[in-house]
Design brief:
By secondary structure, the protein is of the alpha+beta class. The protein has helices at 11-21, 77-91, 104-108, 122-134, 153-160; strands spanning 2-5, 33-37, 44-55, 58-68, 96-101, 113-114, 140-145, 181-182, 187-188. It has one domain (2-164): 3-Layer(aba) Sandwich (Aminopeptidase). Strand 8 and strand 9 form a beta hairpin.
């Protein structure tokens, strides 16, 4: 498993996953995304975006649109997407990265903390109001200094061992019997009368 920058050919896949998960696609540009990929199958497992807001006071970096595909959840995929986004933000010399989320507990494990309303950049305050209208009132602003980000060792290990349908899978594996086939005899189990 590894995380890479999104490519133009990933655009349709990204837009489909963003829509399926009900995530924010405002000002969508595929080049702002990273994608977690299973190196043995080339299957895309997760994604995320960092969005740069240009303001009169300077630029502000926001993490948004982070998602993990069913069957890959609970295996550190999202954590490594977040880590790659933070690394990219640090490479662009951002000291602080913001996120507006209704899942702040997830981000807190990496060192994200609540942001006092008086300390929010105006663009982040505006995005918060927009997200509250579209997502719900329980969204909050959290931030982390890029040099304070920490990856929990357990998530790093899960990511190394990640496989589709692993410990985070929510769907049971399909068997031949699900399709009416007797696996021992390799014949159809149900007579259709034809």
């Amino acid at each position: 498993m590894y995380v890479r920058d999104a490519r133009n050919r990933d655009e349709a896949w990204l837009l489909d996953r963003i829509e399926e998960m009900g995530l924010d696609s405002v000002a969508f540009r595929s080049r702002d995304y990273v994608i977690a990929v299973d190196e043995s199958t080339n299957e895309r497992a997760g994604f995320g975006r960092y969005r740069i807001h240009k303001t009169d006071e300077g630029e502000v970096c926001e993490l948004t649109g982070i998602g993990v595909v069913d069957g890959w959840r609970g295996q550190g995929v999202g954590a490594h997407v977040v880590e790659r986004l933070i690394d990219l933000a640090a490479d662009e010399e951002f000291e602080t990265v913001y996120s507006i989320t209704d899942s702040d507990d997830y981000l807190r494990q990496f060192g994200f903390e609540s942001v006092d309303p008086d300390e929010r950049p105006p663009v982040i305050a505006d995005r918060l109001e927009q997200k509250r209208r579209t997502v719900g009132e329980d969204v909050v602003v959290v931030a982390v200094d890029t040099d304070a980000f920490e990856m929990p060792a357990a998530l790093r290990q899960r990511f190394k061992e990640a496989e589709k349908g692993g410990t985070g899978s929510t769907e049971p594996e399909e068997t031949a019997e699900d399709f009416g086939i007797d696996a021992d005899e390799a014949t159809y189990k149900y007579d259709t009368g034809n």
